[in-house]
Model the fold of this input.
Amino acid sequence: MLPGVHDFVKRLAMIVILQRQVRVDLRVTQWANQFGKVPVVAWFLGEVPVDQYTGWLCVALRQLALASTAVLARLAVPRRHGDYSCLDSLGHRPGTGNEVRTESPVSNLLSLLKLAPTQDDGSTIDFMRTSMTAADANAERSARARLSLDGLSIGDGFGQRFFIPWTVESATSANLPEAPWHYTDDTEMAMAIVQVLERYGEIEQNALAQTFANRYLAEPGRGYGAGAHELLRQIADGADWRLVSRELFGGQGSFGNGGAMRVGPLGAWFADDVKATIENALRSSEITHAHIEGQAGAIAVALAAGWAWRWNQSDRSERPEQMLEWIAELLPESEVAASVAQVSDIPLDAWAFDVAREFGCGDQVSAQDTVAYCLWMSAAHLTDYCGAMWTAARVGGDVDTTCAIIGSIVAMSVGNDTIPAEWQRHRESLNW
Ligand SMILES: [Mg+2]
Done:
């Protein structure tokens, strides 16, 4: 490719990143739409090796593709949850800054939960109670977490291959993308969580923040969002994550889907302990997501991964819909909780495209427009990992992340050896 083309792509990326950082989403959408260069840039991507310019290109293409998806979604059907101000049941209006908690200890959010996690959680699936030693328990937890990580990372790499909207047309089982399937930030951050869990047995926040930062510095071109670039660089430079995460996005903190995208393995690790699932999911998310929506999204996905594993270990008599109802009851009051409650009313044989139009499929990169759809997709495909992936690819949106989240959950309900070996070989090796 000509050097001038590379310069053009990088300049284009910088404009998009700057737009995104000040969160003028509407302007980004209009700009991308009017500019009309999405096909051109995507064509460029095909000419550029993945390991070259990936930092800029991935962010630029992500924003462009998401913007175009958002335009199409808005043209198709009005979104039920498009107006944050009418749905924040905490009584806060995003953007005013009053939803930022000046403190964010776990106990504060736990106090908001509708059901104290020490009480009976209401699930009809018995938890696995054993007399294993701590070492045995951790070995089993680690195996579960790595199974979920496989589902997540294969989904991440698979979904990334369908990130460009018009490649969706080829998303049929007859067209398995060629190897290698490069994984993205979803997998990088999930691996950090697994590393910390295997070392400490729980989420030690400072260690996780440092692991996030170290892995980011090692491979910054894994498609991190603009906010993550900013935050992880500052943490790597020695800043306190508690301060930096609350300063993001004008002081309201991130409500992106990053807390949810990486947390499936954590839910798998703590699948035998709901209270620990909630506490540790919150701890894992608040390092980067000070906004309650980002945290609620993480709790929801972690609970789903644990539920899926227990369902697979049980007689499977519980209806998949009950997973959604159960999670909605456990979440803190939030837009995410409201969406999960509403999506639990959607029949699981409904058309996934309709669910995505109604609840979002990550085109805003927020927890609010990602998590409910992913949980519904997981419930609808509890026994079919590949079917879940192909459907999510065809629906589109933030497709590497939706496939990662769904994959991290469904891997737990389908169990070992059910993700095709070919798919496992196609994902690039995990760089531990
Ligand atoms: Mg990603």
Notes: The chain has 21 helices and no strands. The pocket of magnesium ion is lined by residues 184-186, 223, 400-401 (CB under 6 Å). The mean pLDDT is 78.
